[in-house]
Amino acid sequence: MCLYLLIVDQHGTMRERRSEIMEFYTEQLILREVGEEDLSEVARTWPGETRPVSEAEARAAIARMRASHAHNKPGCLYHLCLAVCAKDRPGTVMGWCGLDGSRNHAEPEIFILLDEEHRGKGYGTQCVKELLRTAVDVFCLKSVHGGCAKENKASARAMEKGGMTRCGTEDNGDPLYRFQV
Q1: What's the pLDDT tens digit per position in 156-173?
Q2: What is the CATH number of the domain that holds 149?
Q3: How many other C-beta atoms can be found within 10 angstroms of the C-beta atom of residue 161?
Q4: What pLDDT is attached to residue 4?
Q5: What residues in the chain have per-residue pLDDT under 50?
Q6: Is residue 9 part of a domain?
Q7: Would you state the pLDDT for residue 6?
Q8: What CA–CA distance (Å, rounded) separates 90 from 107?
Q9: What is the bridge-based pairing of β-strands 165-169 and 143-147?
Q10: Does some domain include residue 48?
Q11: Best label site of 137, 148, 150, 151, fewest CB within 10 Å?
Q12: Dist. CA 79–CA 57, nearest whole Å
């Protein structure tokens, strides 16, 4: 769980600061931030043209995640990227999920990237449900949107089962989804 503290500096300016590492739980999963101790798992699983990525690339990815997470606050989400791990194997990264607010800080886009061997087991739906809960309960957001390739029936099903509603179609036929409070 992530907590926010209201800090008042010596000039009377109020600001929020995150006080803990973010870690969220579903029935079978842990969605969590990563750190230097996860370097080998980030290198092994980080999305890229080749896998594994180098240690330097993994270290840079961790730094980018930390930097963007530091900007997130209630009502304004820049980017949230979490490792997807099984509860019984918390040190093994099965994929990545999160919310990308780079285009719209108040209505981020959901994303889920699971390694192939972990697909088709309901993990995507668990990620969607927990990310939507996090968007509302932790970041005080009113809506989240998402989409997938029209051929990606599993992602469409995960978004629908997770609580999102189909709201339209891209020009190329790819479905669009939205969750609103």
Answers
A1: 999 999 999 999 999 999
A2: 3.40.630.30
A3: 14
A4: 46
A5: 1-7, 9, 17-19
A6: no
A7: 43
A8: 29
A9: unpaired
A10: no
A11: 151
A12: 19
> In a 3-state reduction of DSSP, which class is residue 140?
coil
Reading phi first (left if > 0) and then psi (alpha if -120 to 50, else beta), residue 75 is in: left
Task: Check: CB of residue 19 under 8 Å from CB of residue 66.
Answer: no
Angstrom distance (rounded) from CA 124 to CA 158: 6
Which of 39, 114, 105 is CA-nearest to residue 77? 105
Asked if residue 158 belongs to a domain, the reply is yes
Q: Which of 66, 118, 68, 73 is nearest to 92 (CA)?
A: 118
Handedness of CA 30, 34, 39, 42 (dihedral sign): positive
Residue 180 in tokens: 């609103």
Domain containing residue 146: 22-34+72-180
Q: What is the pLDDT of residue 51?
A: 86
Decide if 133 is inside a domain: yes
For the whole model, what pTM was predicted? Answer: 0.88
Report the pLDDT value the prediction gives residue 13, as an integer from 0 to 100: 57
Adjacent-strand bridge partners of 112: 97
Number of domains in the chain: 1
Helices (H), 46-162: 55-71, 123-137, 153-162
- Please, what's the largest Cα pairwise distance for the chain? 56
